[in-house]
Amino acid sequence: MTEPSIDKVNNILVVGAGAMGSQIGMVCSLAGYGVTVQDIDEGMLEKAQEQLRARMARNVEKGRMEQNEVNAAFDRMSFTNDLEGSASETDFVIEAAVEKLDVKRELFGKLDEAAPEHAILATNSSTIVSSQVADATDRSDRVCNMHFFNPALVMKCVEVVRGPKTSDATVETTVELTRRIGKAPVVLSKEISGFVANRILGALRDEAISLHEKGVASIEDIDTACKTALGHPMGPFELMDLTGIDVGYYVKMARYEESGDPKDKPKKSVVEKFEKNELGRKTGKGWYEYDEQGRKKAPSESEV
Ligand code: 3HC
């Protein structure tokens, strides 16, 4: 068997062209890697390219990056529907598809068939620990979680989580790759749902939602308290709108399925938002409303 190693990592495949996947791809290509972003949905691929081009144009405009640096990064990137074809040429996969176990297991099975032996298959999931997808492959030692934070172009932390069968070489390679793309690795030596940052964030979020549901304060005032009393860059409701209310919903459902504890279920107002497809910035409405440019408008009518 060929052991994974950072020296073998030249081409990275990101599966899923949502906000996370596309930005993870951009981070890797800006760091000099060849990147393929794959998605089954052509529309998602187009949207991803448009958003990344707009984001990079802004960085050039603001003097944060040189135009030639951005051009070179886009030259190293390709966007495709072809999973097997792109997997056959990759050295490292970062899967950032929908947070559904059956979808991920099927993907990992296909990736395992197509990818070279030395390739690591990492999942960006924060809820599905890699051992749940590793056994859909014949390379459990080369599977781990590599969890980025939203927005991936900005947030420095990447949690690297070792599954029970993940090899040292896989952890070392993933940690080194994290450093080489300019991120700060946080290593978890064992699996736990939610990992470190999201478990802490989840506790804060639960308290914020519960204060809102009890009618103690408006979502705006709770957000203001977190920003002005605690120095958080965003309030918990603003952050849920950024990361997606559906993502939070699935996280809670997964935690509940694991623990069986009703306290782990998504809160009532989150379920309501989820059922109304008010998922945050991406649908134009979540806890707040957003205009076409993604700027926040007044709080949603439906609060309290
Ligand atoms: N995508 C990419 N870059 C973005 C961005 C986005 N969605 N939003 C902001 N930025 C970058 C841009 O460069 C922007 O500057 P520009 O607009 O001039 O180009 C710069 O950040 C500053 O943005 P803003 O002036 O709009 O606002 P802030 O100064 O508040 O910064 C923020 C935005 C970086 C998102 C900051 O508010 C922040 O750090 N918020 C907390 C984010 C956080 O907690 N993330 C973790 C979420 S949990 C998670 O991801 C786990 C997962 O499992 C769900």
Q: Could you explain the architecture of this structure?
A:
- The protein is α/β, with parallel strands linked by helices.
- It has 2 domains: 183 residues, NAD(P)-binding Rossmann-like Domain (Rossmann fold), CATH 3.40.50; 104 residues, N-(1-d-carboxylethyl)-l-norvaline Dehydrogenase, domain 2 (Orthogonal Bundle).
- The protein is built from 12 helices and 10 strands.
- An 8-stranded mixed beta sheet has the order 3-2-1-4-5-6-7-8, sandwiched between helices. It has a two-stranded antiparallel sheet with strand order 9-10.
- Strand 1, helix 1 and strand 2 form a beta-alpha-beta unit.
- Helix 1 packs across helix 2 and helix 11 crosses helix 12.
- It starts with 10 loop residues before the first strand and ends in a 5-residue tail after the last strand.
- The site of 3-hydroxybutanoyl-coenzyme A has 17 residues, from helix 2, helix 8 and helix 10.
